[in-house]
């Protein structure tokens, strides 16, 4: 069915135009041509691997988001670690995602393309955690026991604006440490305190992971408006949750896509899904938040009606974020 036919079938109580006009947007979209080489260079330039001795075990944390070139980046990281004699393996670092089960999280990583036969390292998954500390005046912090037992832990994640709050540290490596490595228990503990806790505690929590765990660094990935890899940077544990991650977040904000109008009567979204955004539709694009006691200050256009036509295939029926729409089919 053509898009116009789908729109007309929604039966809005208003006249719809007989035709749709195509609007072309142009974004500043830097792109890395050789992602494997950029990955290797980022790790080498950081000096992080100098802390790893031959024979050391290294847990590589991978999340649940559909990140462009993720499998290639993980594969190159694994190969580079093997080159120095290390013994890398993959761990799911995704909080309570994929049903909050070890098997579900392992399957999720494989569905993202990070299969053992592709990246050259096995996946070790667990939901069991150990407490590694507590944020002063805040919640306890956790790390899954498999990564905690390794000699070192590395993280690989995309840096991007969060869909529920604004701060100097949002979605990225620090949040992956706190929520991702914390598994279901850590995620529930932090999220139970609300959005304000994420704003307040993620950055100071990163200092505890730096000081009291085997986390030695992470690879920060930036994507442009076309979901192409725009930048790759390796951060030491001391830089995770600090000024360097904040700088990368600001760069990421400048790269994201946006809608070309200040006001929209009807926004029709073809597909919604967790692989697109944690909220199904990126609140940074649609400008809707709908979180109690949180201001609707995300910017973006003033949209009267949002209609969602379908779910993405990779979301497997998860329609989280559908409440941001006015009309669904």
Give structural notes.
- The chain is α/β, with parallel strands linked by helices.
- The protein has 2 domains: 3-25 and 258-328, no CATH class; 35-255, LarA, N-terminal domain (Rossmann fold, 3-Layer(aba) Sandwich), CATH 3.40.50.
- It is built from 11 helices and 10 strands.
- The protein has a 5-stranded mixed beta sheet with strand order 2-1-5-6-7, sandwiched between helices.
- Strand 1, helix 3 and strand 2 form a beta-alpha-beta unit.
- Helix 2 (35-46) packs across helix 3 (70-83) and helix 7 packs across helix 9 (195-212).
- The longest helix is centred in the middle third of the chain and has 18 residues, at 195-212.
- The chain is globular.
Tally of alpha and pi helices = 11
Strand content: 15-25%
Tell me the name of the CATH homologous superfamily of the largest domain. Answer: LarA, N-terminal domain
With strands numbered from the N-terminus, the spatial order across the biggest sheet is 2-1-5-6-7
What's the number of domains? 2
- CATH architecture title of the largest domain: 3-Layer(aba) Sandwich
Order of helices and strands: HHEHEHHEEHEHHHEEHEHEE
Structural class from helices and strands? alpha/beta
Q: Please identify the top-level CATH class of the largest domain.
A: Alpha Beta
- Taking the alpha carbons of the first and last residues, their distance comes to 13 Å
Percentage of residues in helical conformation: 25-40%
What is the name of the CATH topology of the largest domain? Rossmann fold
Radius of gyration: 20 Å
Question: How many strands, which pairing sense, and closed or not: the largest β-sheet?
Answer: 5 strands, mixed
Rounded mean pLDDT is: 91
- The counted number of beta strands is 10
Unreliable stretches: none
Inertia-based shape: globular
């Amino acid at each position: 069915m053509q898009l116009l036919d789908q729109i007309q079938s929604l039966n809005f109580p208003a006249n719809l135009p007989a035709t749709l006009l195509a609007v072309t947007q142009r974004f500043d979209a830097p792109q890395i041509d050789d992602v494997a080489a950029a990955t290797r260079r980022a790790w080498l330039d950081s000096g992080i691997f100098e802390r790893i001795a031959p024979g050391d075990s290294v847990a590589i944390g991978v999340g649940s988001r559909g990140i462009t070139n993720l499998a290639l980046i993980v594969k190159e990281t694994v190969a580079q670690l093997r080159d120095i004699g290390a013994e890398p393996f993959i761990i799911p670092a995704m909080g309570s995602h994929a049903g909050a089960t070890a098997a579900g999280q392992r399957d999720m990583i494989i569905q993202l393309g990070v299969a053992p036969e592709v990246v050259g390292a096995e996946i070790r998954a667990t939901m069991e955690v150990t407490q590694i500390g507590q944020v002063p005046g805040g919640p306890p912090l956790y790390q899954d026991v498999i990564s905690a037992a390794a000699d070192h832990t590395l993280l690989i994640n995309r840096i991007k604006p969060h869909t529920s709050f604004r701060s100097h540290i949002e979605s990225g490596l620090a949040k992956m440490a706190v929520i991702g490595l914390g598994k279901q228990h850590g995620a529930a503990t932090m999220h139970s305190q609300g959005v304000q806790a994420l704003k307040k505690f993620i950055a100071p929590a990163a200092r505890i992971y730096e000081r009291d765990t085997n986390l030695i660094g992470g690879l920060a990935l930036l994507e442009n408006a076309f979901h192409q890899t725009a930048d790759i940077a390796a951060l030491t544990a001391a830089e995770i949750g600090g000024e360097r991650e904040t700088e990368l977040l600001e760069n990421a904000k400048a790269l994201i896509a946006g809608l070309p109008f200040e006001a929209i009567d009807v926004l029709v979204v073809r597909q919604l899904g967790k692989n697109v955004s944690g909220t199904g539709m990126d609140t940074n694009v649609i400008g809707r938040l709908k979180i109690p006691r949180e201001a609707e200050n995300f910017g973006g256009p003033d949209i009267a009606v949002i209609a969602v036509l379908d779910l993405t295939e990779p979301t497997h029926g998860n329609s989280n974020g559908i409440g941001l729409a006015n009309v669904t089919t």
